[in-house]
């Protein structure tokens, strides 16, 4: 008679946890659930208390108190892990190369059976090593990405015009107004301040040269050494002030 494999389930959705437990009980490979947890904190405590270590850990990626990857920072995981997730399989491709199984929700009974069979075939082999780089890359993919502004609606006479951010060369302030300068040479007033625009625009594309100018990096045509280790830039289209100085406190970040 086969010795049942011992499993811990970490899942913060009660219905999903019950369904997974039911599916595991129906597996042809004997498998016993020896503990359940709903959060990273509970999972860490459970793993510390479970001796010997379980044969497998079923781990949901997004838990009530954060991403489950934090678990690996809190406790040594000494068993294979099968991730369960609602995220698209392409975001999890890294795990294929790291010999870690994963199941997409809603979990398919046949896929679960195949994963458990692979797990049994590895017994009593040691748990696969976790590649911190791959885990970090996946965490970055799962984090919500900032949504930067894609266009501006501006008033031109009695009309409203849409200007895509891709057409913006730079913004500048003058006499308490903020102007948008397009690559084609059009200049219009926008409602936002430069401080607000810094929050709305992608920082990998726009840089605040000084108190008065926020520029797209492709609008910088030349960089010239100036006095006291300062720099000045030539923009295209040419700014109303001609060359634009980089503030002394921003020079280091500008160089970087």
UniProtKB/TrEMBL annotation:
Keyword vocabulary terms for this entry: DNA-binding, Phosphoprotein
SUPFAM superfamilies (UniProt xref): CheY-like
Pfam families: LytTR (PF04397), Response_reg (PF00072)
Source species: Hymenobacter defluvii
Record keyword DNA-binding present: yes
SMART domains cross-referenced by the UniProt entry: LytTR (SM00850), REC (SM00448)
Domain annotation HTH LytTR-type: ranges: 152-256
Name of the protein in its database record: Response regulator transcription factor
Domain Response regulatory: 6-120
Statement: the UniProt record of this protein carries the keyword Phosphoprotein: yes
PROSITE patterns (alphabetical): HTH_LYTTR, RESPONSE_REGULATORY
